[in-house]
Amino acid sequence: MPTPFFCHPVNSEDVVSTRLYFVNASLQRVTFSSSVGVSLPCPAGGAPHAVLRWYLASGDDIYDVPHIRHVHANGTLQLYPFSPSAYNSIIHDNEYFCTAENQAGKIRSPSIHVKAGKGQQHPSIHPSIHPSIHPSSIHPSIHPSIHPSILTLT
């Protein structure tokens, strides 16, 4: 009589599901006050942990500009409050996108137009299709002398 064969995974505890996903891919445009600044979390994630990176729409890597622009380790892009003399259209009026990468591959968010305005205007968020973004996911930067503005969805 033939011996039956049984198949079973070895080290099955090491088998991990890998995936990449968008938290919110509908964000199209963010306008913020130069006196307040803004923080944008990368709208993507993954399991296991994905490496999140920001780029200009041209594909150029984002680099930190002291006291102007910073990408945090958690993937949040922060544009700090700035004076009119520090305005730079490459930083303050440009399209950005974020990527998430892990063992499952790499995904790219749609481009987000980020534009700084002048004065005390409220930041506004413009989703492309559905206003599914929650105000708690995009934050005005906190400056010691300024209270953060209330976000409005349009």
TrEMBL record:
Gene3D superfamilies: Immunoglobulins (2.60.40.10)
InterPro entries: Ig-like_dom, Ig-like_dom_sf, Ig-like_fold, Plasmodium_CSP_Invasion
SUPFAM superfamilies cross-referenced by the UniProt entry: Immunoglobulin
Domain Ig-like: 9-113
Superkingdom, natural source: Eukaryota
Protein's UniProt name: Down syndrome cell adhesion molecule-like protein 1
Organism: Takifugu flavidus (sansaifugu)
Organism lineage string: Eukaryota, Metazoa, Chordata, Craniata, Vertebrata
